[in-house]
Amino acid sequence: MEALIERGVMNALLKKLLRFAGKSDQRVALVFGFDAATCRRAVLYLRTSIPHVPVWLFSTAVPEADVRQQCERVVVNSSQEHF
Question: With the C-alpha atoms ordered 54, 77, 12, 18, is the resulting torsion angle positive or negative?
C-alpha cells in the first residue's frame, strides 16, 4: 500500500514538473546521460521504439549534432558539482 502511495506522489510530482515545463498530458521520454555515446544509444533506441514520443535529453556531456536533432529538448550541464 505504501508503495502505491509513493508512486502516486511521484506521478503527481512528475505531472506538475511537466506542466511547469509546458507539457500537459502528452507523454515525453526523458533521457539522462553522462557521456555522448550513452546519450546516442538511448536516444536512437527511443526514436526507433516509440517514434511518436518526444525525447528530452539531459546530459553532462555535449551530444553529437545528429543526436540533438532527434530530441525535442536538450539540456547540457557539465558542472562538476553534484548535489
Answer: negative
Q: Rounded distance, CA 34 to CA 14, Å?
A: 22
Contact, 63 vs 33, CB < 8 A? yes
Parse the chain into domains and list their residue ranges.
24-83
pLDDT digits 0-9 by tens, 36-79: 999 999 999 999 999 999 999 999 999 999 999 999 999 999 77
Contact (Cβ atoms closer than 8 angstroms) between residue 18 and residue 28: yes
Q: What is the DSSP letter of 78?
A: -
Q: State how far the alpha carbon of 37 is from the alpha carbons of 28, 34, 45, 57, in Å.
A: 21, 9, 12, 13
Q: Read off the pTM.
A: 0.65
The answer to whether 32 and 39 have CB atoms below 8 angstroms apart is no
